[in-house]
Amino acid sequence: LAKTTQPISMDSYEGQEVNITCSHNNIATNDYITWYQQFPSQGPRFIIQGYKTKVTNEVASLFIPADRKSSTLSLPRVSLSDTAVYYCLVTSGTYKYIFGTGTRLKVLA
Amino acid sequence: GAGVSQSPSNKVTEKGKDVELRCDPISGHTALYWYRQSLGQGLEFLIYFQGNSAPDKSGLPSDRFSAERTGGSVSTLTIQRTQQEDSAVYLCASSLPPSGANVLTFGAGSRLTVL
Question: I need a labelling partner for A6 at 20 to 30 A (CA). Which of A18, A64, B18, B89 fits?
Fold first, then answer.
């Protein structure tokens, strides 16, 4: 299982773009990169997944360079409601998903 | 159902009592997972069920913990003789059979407090 490394915490102001980078140097050919968001008192929620290049949905964008050893979650124009913990996972056919401590994002007014 | 349902949402118990936590996964999801999350920490894998295969119990922290999944659907996590260190949020998730692009859907969790 590829290990991931991401910042423990980040602060941002409302309206700014937030980029959270995750390192996964040992990612394997069949692995995907998946991000989850967790609000207090809730379970994690899937926000975006990618294999290579760039993926965008209504919530976020995910940038993956050609070597796939890292990925960047981009949240455009954050609001206070984006304050949460963001987890980066490398997922393959195994079921042992490893959720680390994630990145605690705090959005300030 | 439309989502993963867990009950109870909150449980306060006395040290030494047994507790049962229930998870009702999304209909059609053959894979079911239990995680534990202590305050301010990441998720700790406990147990995994996939269809009719034998579950992977390798994450259970002690023999006081057990889980079953009846009829390939509802799962119950049982903690016997609870200890204060068992206090945590217990999260259940379900999914289709694991693959690289697999996505887990989590319930809201059951918050257990052992006094």
Answer: B89
d(CA A74, CA A78): 10
User: A99 vs B102: CB contact, 8 Å cut-off?
Assistant: no
Residues of B within 8 A of A37 (CB-CB) are: none
Q: Which residues 6+ apart lie within 8 Å of A101 measured at CB?
A: A8, A85, B41, B42
In a domain, A30, yes or no: yes
CATH number reported for the structural domain that contains residue A79 in this entry: 2.60.40.10
A102 interfaces chain B, CB cutoff of 8 Å? yes
Contacts of B24 (CB under 8 A, 6+ apart): B1, B4, B5, B6, B7, B73, B74
Please report which confidence band the pLDDT of residue B1 belongs to, taking 50, 70 and 90 as the band edges.
Answer: low
Interval B74-93: pLDDT, tens: 999 999 999 999 999 999 99
For residue B30, is it within any domain?
yes
